[in-house]
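Entry:
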Amino acid sequence: MDNILILGGAGMVGSFIAGMLGKGVHTLTLVDLVPPRALLNHRVMDVLSIPEQAPELLEAATIIVFALPEDVAIRGLECFVGKAPSVKALVNTCSVQAPFQRRAEQLFPAVASVGINPMFAPTLDCAERPVVLCERRESEVGNRFAVLLKAHAIRVTRLLPDEHDRAMAVCQALPHAAILAFAFALERSGCDMDTLQALAPPPMKTMLSLVARVLHNAPVIYWDIQKHNGAAQQQRDQLSASLGMLDHMCGVDTPEAFAEKLNAVQRQLGTYVDVYGETCEALFKTLSPSRKSD
């Protein structure tokens, strides 16, 4: 039986991890600035104050889960050195894996380091949704977490930390940057939202829905993805360059070049054009009000 300490255990991801682990035979202790909603053993405190205020938590822990923003998680690693003698695994849920994993290897070289990054908001039904499991070297604890995730019908993909961050720059940083850029441009437009809502076609409603989804979550989630992933800058540069290319095409009036660029995108997507075309059609039907029968 493991004694598991979940830092940030009252947050969205921390609660998700605690919910899975709480069904096992482990002893769980959650630490956060606010109490968790579930009736679980917890301490309300700053996680960085644990070594001074509750050193017994670190002394007893065999697995420490860092369900925290990247910078706080790394600071936690640094202040826990030499104070967790029984720990055999460090688990993090960071959106960017390489910085935490490198620091963990430096400070806790004999301890397994496992990253778990859900590719969805954990408030959603997790069945058939993807989660990335990251390790520099396969470990017994990592394998146990993979089994636990799969037992909840979650699709597990294993990546090295650097592989994870490169993939997340495209899968997360790029679309989030596009959504945020749209949101910032919308705010600067000064348009009346009631008018936009009355006129908005399905693509506009889709973008507004994505913006609303971002606004329902903590800003730090999206900040960490953009700020701490070294590969995200390249994707933002590509996004800016693509807007510049579109602006140039319109400026010199080259519809043929525009069409050829879209053809190139279609060649890249291949058969996924039809797959996602059908998905978009279903989404647009959801966003459009149903017609009343006469």
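The chain is about 55% helix and 15% strand.
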